[in-house]
Amino acid sequence: MALYRHLKATHPHDKPYQCHDCATHYNNMKELSSHRSNVHRAKLVSCTQCDYKATSKTKLRQHVRQHMQGLLCQKCGKSFLTISELSQHEHFHDDREVFECEQCGAERLLSDSM
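Below the sequence we write its predicted structure tokens.
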């Protein structure tokens, strides 16, 4: 017990296991794992139209587009959640080159800065 108190009082920052989300330190991996599962556990958001669950509202929003049929681009058939998104998308059908991100599907004009 005396050694434990000494370490805690004299060397409080000598905890080698650091949480990358909040920068707190722990004495061992078990403590760190417990902290991460209790504090930083991913909260899932659910689709109201099917059983899909996403780890972020952005991913859920991308998924919900599958259920949308009202806001379709007349040139390519891609669906959008808002009129402003559809309007922004329609500009990409002008005679300009468009880059589509392979990871998220975001569209940008090649002249846009990324």
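The chain has two domains: 2-39, 45-109.
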